[in-house]
Amino acid sequence: MNYTQGNEIEKTRRAKKNMMLFGLISLSMSFAGLTSAYIISKERPDWLSGFELPQAFFISLAIIILSSLTFMLAKTAIKNEDNSKGMLFLIATFVLGIVFVYLQFLGFSQIIENGYYFTGSESSITTSFIYLVVLLHLAHITVGLICILVVIYNHYKLKYVKGNTLGVELAATFWHFVDILWIYLFLFLYFT
What are the pLDDT digits (tens) for 98-136? Predict the structure, then answer.
């Protein structure tokens, strides 16, 4: 395929999708580096053995998977120009994202209730790593929630018509990425 061919709209779409791809690759590498550092740090003598993830993280896993499903349904509805169904699924995705964030902070409080601290003299390298990784992921979830709000606003203004759904596609790709990233992080933290 010749990437210099096509009209300006096609070239712009390709460029924006490629920029998204490069961004996701760099985010993946950042989290790969953090998880590698986590593995190496497990050899430290002050590493906590027997640390268990809080119950709220398990529930948040189900919520984030459900939010990916609702975003897929929203994207399909918008592409089919079923505006009311698209809006319903977009709002559901946003609400599920907020619930996910709430559950992450609930998980932090459950960790603290169990006597593990993230910073200070009573903290450990184990909990500091978990705190760092989860907070970085939450920062990306926040960006995803902002993207969803922009998509909701644009959809309300009927900007996604006649196949012009690039904004929805890019936001959905990012949201699915942060969802998959949480699944990876959860499984990584659970099994290592």
Answer: 999 999 999 999 999 998 888 888 888 899 899 999 999
Q: Which residue shows structure tokens 């959809």?
A: 155
Distance between CA atoms of residues 71 and 95, nearest Å: 11
3-state DSSP assignment of residue 13 = helix
The half-sphere exposure of 168 on its side-chain side, counting CA atoms within 13 A, is 30
8-191 homologous superfamily = Cytochrome c oxidase, subunit III, four-helix bundle (1.20.120.80)
Please, what's the b/e burial string for 44-53 (b: 16 or more CB within 10 A of its CB; e: otherwise)? eeeeeeeeeb
How many angstroms separate the CA atoms of 192 and 181, rounded? 16
Closest CA to 94 of 156, 46, 32: 156
Q: Could you give the CA distance from residue 153 to residue 20 in angstroms, rounded to a whole number?
A: 21
Residues 6+ apart with CB under 8 A from 114: 54
Q: Is the pTM of this model over 0.85?
A: yes
| Alpha carbon distance 142, 138 (integer Å) | 6
* Cα–Cα dist 57/112, whole Å: 14
The CA distance from 133 to 143, in Å, is 16
Residues 6+ apart with CB under 8 A from 79: 163, 165, 168
